[in-house]
Amino acid sequence: SQKIEQNSEALNIQEGKTATLTCNYTNYSPAYLQWYRQDPGRGPVFLLLIRENEKEKRKERLKVTFDTTLKQSLFHITASQPADSATYLCAPGTYIPTFGRGTSLIVHP
Amino acid sequence: DTAVSQTPKYLVTQMGNDKSIKCEQNLGHDTMYWYKQDSKKFLKIMFSYNNKELIINETVPNRFSPKSPDKAHLNLHINSLELGDSAVYFCASSRQGSNTEAFFGQGTRLTVV
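^ Those are the sequences you sent over. The predicted structure of the assembly is below.
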């Protein structure tokens, strides 16, 4: 069955550093992959979508890579800020958005 | 303007009761979803509707029944509530087809006592 893995442990980093989150998936080959941000008490909010023929995609301080051979996506936040603290969810593309458990990012001032 | 709105935001009820959660989207989307997020924060799909028709029904007890009166609404009815139903329920919508982002409501925190 399809499986999506994200680091369950929280990632703690200092303000200004680059945060890197990992999403691994198995047993399927999605044509695209989405990343969402979820704040406590709120619903997930879409951030970026990357297609299988795109190696990398950027949006402001965000960068996503998609390696279909490794079945992995990396999500980077450069020059991180305390306001970036949240849980980040990946959703390797299927017809119905299906999410990993998410990784909590904590950016310390 | 709220794109996807759910009511109520909080719902506390006793075991055995029947309750409903309402969801409305004003984005003109054809597809709507219900997700359940448990205490471990795992967001799991429950139902998906496309143009008022059920597309997917994951392994969900029959006590849960979605109802879509029109494309803009997808309500969730839950009968005979159990303690294990306590969770946050999210409604979402998207344009028809794959490769589209989902827009989520703010969630309904259901507590069964």
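Chain A has one domain: 3-108. Chain A has a mean pLDDT of 93.

Shout if you want it in another format.
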